[in-house]
Amino acid sequence: MESRPSFHPRIMPLRRSCLAMGIWSAISFCLLASGCGESNGQLPVVPVKGVLIFQGKPLDNALVTFHSADQTPGKITSGRATTKRDGSFELSTYNANDGIPEGDYAVTIECFRLRGGNGSWEPGPNILPPKYSNPQTSEIKLSVRKEDVSEKRIEIR
Q: What residue spans define the domains of the chain?
């Protein structure tokens, strides 16, 4: 005798309503995630490139973060980059290498060298002085303006 799945008249509408709810949720999420032009809450950005020099040499694999000095709600931003072998970097805020909004920034820099071996690596201590890892104590202050397209040069001794 062939077994059939049991059918209950109250379960089918429930499954349909869950399916419909899932579809509407997915559509709503996509619409919210995509945004509409400038109303997505993103501030206009300016491309920012730079180079990081530590003790007279380019510093690679360092995390460079620009922290906004403007603490007005809706204008608090930060841009980040990891330096390349030649010490160069390009800041990212919303998308890769898109830049940061115009403004004044406190810059923090951290560089952790990996230690370990045999497939087991962990970050070692920050090789830079601790004052550079905190926006309140970092002495590096820079301004970003759309008219200024020069490369930002940061030197740490």
A: 49-156
Determine the pLDDT at residue 118.
81
Task: Give the per-residue pLDDT at 139.
Answer: 96
Q: Within 13 Å, how many C-alpha atoms sit on residue 91's CB side? A: 28
Task: Give the 3-state secondary structure of residue 2.
Answer: coil
Which CATH number is associated with domain 49-156?
2.60.40
- Which residue type sits at 33? A
Helices and strands (H, E) in the chain, number of each type:
1, 10
Can you give the pLDDT at residue 36?
A: 39
pTM above 0.85, yes or no: no
Give the per-residue SS3 of 15-29.
HHHHHHHHHHHHHHH
